[in-house]
Amino acid sequence: MFVGVYERQLDERGRVALPPSFRSTIGETCYLTIGDDGCVRIQSADDFHDEAEEMKEAAKSGEVSRAKMRAFSSSVVVGSLDKQGRLVIDANLRDHGGIEPQSSVMVIGAIDRIEIWEPSRWEIQNTTGQNEIAADQAGGAS
């Protein structure tokens, strides 16, 4: 399980050091994909394979177009951590996330995946989510 938020710095080669608590959980091989809302998503091999199987079945049944499946699968990058716990974020994925080499990023634990965010994009997402939590709590108060 991935939880918490960590500020990190991308190096000149587009590498980011994952928090130690994430390193043991993600495994030796991980999958980097285009994430929702403009982030970069990182999944363990097992979780990615499960999602890929679901997408394959959805494409067979017509719930997901073949074009969407192709676009998704062609954007995936297989990654692995180096000895310092760093992971290379591919240039195309950095473009998707609005992330530049040698810039700050937010590394977010999102329960079943890791997300890499450009800080201003993360601030918008976090504020939206915090407002939803507050509204839910206010609605549940008696």
Task: Characterise this structure.
By secondary structure, the chain is of the alpha+beta class. It has helices spanning 20-26, 45-61, 66-75, 91-97, 119-140, and strands spanning 5-9, 15-17, 29-34, 40-44, 77-80, 86-88, 104-109, 114-117. The strands form two sheets. It has a six-stranded antiparallel sheet. The protein has a two-stranded antiparallel sheet with strand order 2-6. A hairpin with a 4-residue loop joins β7 and β8 (114-117). The mean pLDDT is 94.
Ordered list of secondary-structure elements with their pairings:
Blueprint: E1 5-9, E2 15-17, H1 20-26, E3 29-34, E4 40-44, H2 45-61, H3 66-75, E5 77-80, E6 86-88, H4 91-97, E7 104-109, E8 114-117, H5 119-140
Antiparallel strand pairs: 1-7, 2-6, 3-4, 3-5, 4-8, 7-8
Question: Keywords, please?
Answer:
6-stranded antiparallel β-sheet, alpha+beta, 142 residues
Radius of gyration: 16 Å
Strand order of the largest sheet: 1-7-8-4-3-5
Compressed to H and E, one letter per element, the order equals: EEHEEHHEEHEEH
Supply the number of helical segments.
Answer: 5
Q: What class do helices, strands and sheet pairing give? A: alpha+beta
Estimate the mean pLDDT confidence.
Answer: 94
Number of strands: 8
Oligomeric state: single chain
Fraction in helix: 40-55%
Q: What is the end-to-end distance?
A: 33 Å
Main sheet attributes: strand count, strand direction, barrel closure: 6 strands, antiparallel
Task: Bin the strand percentage.
Answer: 25-35%
